[in-house]
């Protein structure tokens, strides 16, 4: 996504995400779940739309708290489908709820999503996609690839000469 390093810095919406989140290592389950959900929402849409709707989606999904979203039922689904502030796609909403339940299950088998990721790292993108398709729903190559780049598990989030790439390298060393 080297083009992102050219266009995002200084942009009012893309800039903060590029400069402070994209490609940085993530361990927090709630942040991991939000990133996965945002990538699902992005499928077929522009990243700008997702970032603009991010605050409203965080509110609608209770900050992407895994246990809260995993407990969503029909009333919650209807509430979400009627919320003009979010991306209202039934398949994506159902996938996010189901993936919250699957993350809960990973707590039993691996101690959580971060530990599950650690247990399978490193892999190439194709192997990650296969693995994610076995364990989660709505997992295309772009969703998986962008998710993993966004949390620093796959390379390519930033150009090597991007100042953010240097920051991330420094974090990894310390």
From TrEMBL:
Pfam families named in the record: Adenine_glyco
InterPro entries per the UniProt record, alphabetical: Adenine_glyco, DNA-3mA_glycosylase, DNA_glycosylase
Transmembrane segment boundaries: none
Source taxon at top rank: Bacteria
Signal peptide start-end: none
Name assigned to this protein: DNA-3-methyladenine glycosylase I
Organism annotation: Magnetospirillum sulfuroxidans
